[in-house]
């Protein structure tokens, strides 16, 4: 009898401790609809940028993202990003994305032929200062044991 009770307590505690995933939360439709359209990153800023290089999204140096174009489609959470800076290697990829209720921007970069459901890795950034014409995505990186904000400034492109 004691074993049954112990087993029940153990089972209940395992289910009670279930962690929540950012990908399982509800989406913030208002924030997503506001991001619909074509955007360009006008700047990437972080403390120490003159001394430290940041490899953004494991694709390229953060400076290569200045001038990059992004398209967000809010009704199916798909889009595209393209790095076009002359001094950098060109990069173009489809993406999937959404904004959860906690203001977190979830991004998956899809490489040739990949389906979003097969991609298990992605990026979580915070949405800040969102207006009709601009918004910021903020990534947290570890620099010498200290968490530092990398701020991507997006501006709307009228097309």
Automatic annotation (TrEMBL):
<protein>
    <recommendedName>
        <fullName>Lipocalin-like domain-containing protein</fullName>
    </recommendedName>
</protein>
<dbReference type="InterPro" id="IPR024311">
    <property type="entry name" value="Lipocalin-like"/>
</dbReference>
<feature type="signal peptide">
    <location>
        <begin position="1"/>
        <end position="18"/>
    </location>
</feature>
<dbReference type="Pfam" id="PF13648">
    <property type="entry name" value="Lipocalin_4"/>
</dbReference>
<feature type="domain" description="Lipocalin-like">
    <location>
        <begin position="35"/>
        <end position="109"/>
    </location>
</feature>
<keyword id="KW-0732">Signal</keyword>
